[in-house]
Sequence to fold (97 residues):
Amino acid sequence: MKKLLLTLTAFVCMIGMSVAQTKTDAKAAPAKAATAAKTAAPAKAEKAAAPTKKDGTPDMRFKENKETAKPAAPTKKDGTPDMRYKENKGAAPKSKG
Fold:
């Protein structure tokens, strides 16, 4: 009797999980479509001079895209200006100390 009850409980749980997964997939599909439409619109609005990937980001395999991605002055790994270089020291605001 215990085995039968355990088997039925497991069967009901599996059916419940499969129904729950199909409901969330149906709700997620319109959200993905809306997000894709938002990202595609800006890519078409501006005409890119250099090659781009399907998602609209610059394709870094091409020389034109690599040159535009380089910063004007040296930066650290986190993207902040590296203050060891003269170009970055002139742009920094003077502190009142």
The chain has a mean pLDDT of 74.
